TrEMBL record:
Keywords for this protein: Metal-binding, Oxidoreductase, Zinc
Cofactor: Zn(2+)
Protein name: Peptide methionine sulfoxide reductase MsrB
Species for this entry: Longimicrobium terrae
Catalyses which reaction(s): L-methionyl-[protein] + [thioredoxin]-disulfide + H2O = L-methionyl-(R)-S-oxide-[protein] + [thioredoxin]-dithiol
This protein's record includes keyword ATP-binding: no
Length: 140
């Protein structure tokens, strides 16, 4: 993974849309069934919308019926980080981009084989890079 990208909230506000900032920097969630990648099946890589870090391959995407894009595993073990989330009176595992610490969604232990995991990810936190296209990391 590339070096960490650390920016101030003011700098993130300049670089992200209001919705991207709310999800990625303020740990928000987009409304279910509204995300642009919910039904996408195009081959490629999903990268962090904030920094371009590769997160998930399209081949790991599956229809979970939850209203958010779901994946069985990240592109690599160091692509994302996981944190205990005790918000909303429950304990969940939050998933963040390992490069910029942007909030992506949550991971649950109810996914299909082979991992048994469901990475439930906000569409607004990602961009899709078509297969064969270069992935460009955002720099400070």
């Amino acid at each position: 993974m590339a070096d960490k990208l650390r920016l101030s909230d003011d700098e993130w506000r300049k670089r992200l849309t209001a919705e991207e900032f709310q999800v990625l920097r303020q740990h928000g969630t987009e409304r279910p069934w509204d995300g642009c990648f919910l039904g996408t099946k195009d081959p490629g890589t999903y990268v962090c919308a904030a920094c371009g870090n590769p997160l998930f391959k399209s081949g790991e995407k599956f229809e979970s019926g939850t209203g958010w894009p779901s994946f069985t595993s990240p592109v690599s073990a160091d692509a994302v980080t996981e944190y205990e989330d005790r918000s909303f009176g429950t304990i969940r595992t939050e998933v963040r981009c390992a490069r910029c610490d942007g909030h992506l969604g949550h991971v649950f232990p109810d996914g299909p084989p082979p991992t048994g995991l469901r990475y439930c990810i906000n569409s607004v936190s990602m961009k899709h890079v078509p297969e064969g296209s270069p992935i460009t990391l955002v720099t400070a």
